[in-house]
Design brief:
With about 600 residues, this protein is an alpha+beta fold. About 30% of the residues lie in helices and about 25% in strands. The termini are far apart.
């Protein structure tokens, strides 16, 4: 027999009744039934109930056992009485009568319980993450993550992609976030960087003649933390393809992600039709470039109905070029109580309030109610209702000003309305490709043109597009949104040096600057670069959705806290004087 176990704690069934077995694991729970001790013994695979009575030679030893001790027991498999069978456990038809027990690892008093689902402060959970990971939900989340990654990897190989590894220590490269710098001992005063993404390397792999690359890639960014983003490092399914257009990338990625969500989505519906929505339409309709399409609400521009109207606030706003009035339809939201709640929501977002109209039935007639309805009159109110397709029992909310300013609040309001009115289908994964991102934007104060989105995406129309109005130039850049989260980001790359130099010149970067910052890629593109493109899918965020949690730390084995600290390993930590001397560094105290 094996030194520690003949079976795992999920393996025994009625077929083994009468057999002598050896099990090892953690004491999940102890129950004393008056001279009979029951222990739920847990290992990675499952739980087996073991029992011991006063006739057992091990009884006195078993009496001392406490939660989370690691023990090994030897005993005999018994069938449970029919009334005591636990159908929720694979081992629920049997139990093991203990003949002998060995303590393999005693446990001190626990700082947080493993049994049960009690809420504990996150700081405690992260400081004792090894205990937190013993809890069933987290254990299952980590197993889900492993299975998702294996499934992704298998699907990529099956569709003709090849896995390559790119460097973890490289040069600093401005890619939209702060680098983590690594001082060089051999080259004093110089620094490596941890890669924010394998972006340049995967493009160089295409230039080197490898056609369809993928990697489960670690990425490092010194970012401010959010609930759906790790502040230090994350993993992505990184993809690049040669001789492709935008649709080719979509066609390659969609089956992989559909398959993963169908396999691990727990029976939730996975949309088969993934619409392609222009970035500007997404902002107009949903107030965000990562819309949740489970919510059917589409916002609309209703500026014309307020221009020159009796509602002075909106009428005056519209006298300034670039201002708009948007309506958020709220089917079934037609009550003053709900409208007041949404008005309070707007105030919580820093706005003075949110205008509204709701439609009700009075004396058998439909009537528009609310302050806005009184100010603009029945004709304009009716035109708004017809445009939005609303009726009795419905409402609409209104925000105005410069779209870039109010769109984020409008998007959040749309989400709250959909959730509170039960319009959002929570049993579904709804995907949408967001396309046609503008490459440039103009600073409202300085008038300077700069990059709004990925500067390395190929402009639609190539060099010709760069000869016109920069604010009209769109890139072959795309994101994939699912249930309100950005899961994928990518682009068809700008692989022609002359187009790249022109694109950066428009944003005020001279050729010399581009050569200096991105010399490796520019040099490679001069030696025969194929048209290429790709994307990256955030693995942590995908698993977060599949695990039905809103906190990304629930699906990462050893995450940092909100302050980018590892409370278990005490990182970041102070370097020793010897380390600093060796690297030629000194720490300058931060001024208050």
């Amino acid at each position: 027999m094996h030194a520690y176990r003949s079976h795992t704690c999920a393996a025994l069934t009625k077929a083994e009744v009468g057999e002598a077995v050896r099990l090892s694991g953690w004491v999940h729970r102890v129950r004393d039934h008056g001279g009979v001790l029951f222990i739920d013994l847990r290992d990675h695979y499952g739980v087996t109930q073991i029992l011991c009575d006063s006739d057992s030679p091990a009884f006195k030893d078993v009496e001392k056992v406490r939660s989370e001790w690691v023990i090994m027991i030897e005993g005999n498999v018994k069938a449970r009485d029919a009334s005591l069978v636990n159908p929720k456990l694979p081992t629920g038809e049997i139990e093991v009568y203990i003949r002998s027990m060995t303590v393999l690892g005693a446990a001190e008093e626990l700082p947080l319980p493993v049994f049960g689902d009690q809420d504990y402060p996150e700081e405690t959970r992260l400081a004792y993450r090894f205990l937190d990971l013993r809890r069933e939900t987290l254990h299952q989340n980590m197993m889900l993550r492993s299975r998702v990654i294996k499934s992704m990897r298998d699907r990529m190989w099956d569709t003709g992609f090849t896995e390559f590894q790119t460097p973890i220590i490289t040069a600093s490269s401005p890619e939209g976030a702060r680098d983590f710098l690594v001082p060089s001992r051999l080259h004093p005063g110089k620094f490596y960087a941890l890669p924010q993404a394998p972006q340049q390397f995967k493009q160089l792999i295409m230039v080197a003649g490898f056609d369809r690359y993928f990697q489960i890639a670690p990425c490092f960014r010194d970012e401010d933390p959010r609930a759906d983003r790790s502040p230090t490092d994350f993993y992505q399914l990184d993809v690049e393809m040669s001789f492709v257009e935008q649709q080719d990338v979509f066609n390659a990625v969609e089956p992989v992600l559909k398959g993963v969500f169908e396999e691990f989505g727990g029976g939730r519906k996975v949309d088969q039709d993934w619409p392609q929505i222009a970035y500007r339409d997404a902002a107009m309709w949903y107030g965000t470039d990562k819309p949740d399409l489970r919510n059917p609400i589409k916002m609309q521009d209703v500026s014309e109905h307020f221009r020159g109207s009796g509602f002075a606030i909106f009428a005056k706003l519209l006298e300034t070029e670039g201002n708009e009035i948007r309506a958020i339809p709220a089917p079934t939201g037609g009550s003053r109580k709900f409208c007041d709640r949404m008005n309070s929501f707007a105030q919580s977002q820093g706005l003075p309030g949110m205008g509204y109209i709701f439609w009700r039935e009075t004396d058998g007639q439909m009537e528009a109610a609310g302050p806005l309805a009184k100010n603009i009159g029945p004709e304009r109110t009716e035109a708004i209702r017809q445009q939005l397709g609303l009726g009795v029992g419905d409402a609409a909310f209104f925000l105005g000003g410069k779209p870039k300013v109010f769109e984020p609040v409008a998007g959040r309001a749309r989400t709250v309305i959909g959730d509170e009115l039960g319009l959002t289908d929570t049993n579904r994964f709804a995907f949408a490709w967001i396309v046609d991102f503008p490459i440039y934007e103009k600073d409202a104060e300085t008038g300077k043109i700069d990059f709004e989105h990925n500067p390395f995406s190929m402009p639609q129309g190539g060099m010709d597009a760069l000869m016109g109005d920069p604010l009209e130039v769109k890139g072959y850049q795309y994101d994939l949104a699912c249930n309100g989260y950005e899961l994928v980001s990518g682009a068809i790359r700008n692989h022609k040096p002359e187009i790249m130099f022109k694109a950066f010149e428009i944003a005020g970067y001279p050729k010399e600057e581009v050569e200096k910052r991105f010399g490796g890629m520019v040099k490679a593109f001069r030696y025969g670069a194929p048209p290429h493109g790709g994307c990256a899918a955030g693995i942590d965020r995908i698993v977060m959705l599949l695990a039905d949690t809103v906190n990304i730390r629930e699906v990462i084995m050893f995450p940092m806290n909100q302050r980018a600290e590892d409370l278990m390993m005490n990182a970041p930590s102070d370097p020793t004087n010897e380390q600093l001397r060796e690297l030629g560094l000194r720490v300058v105290p931060k001024e208050d």
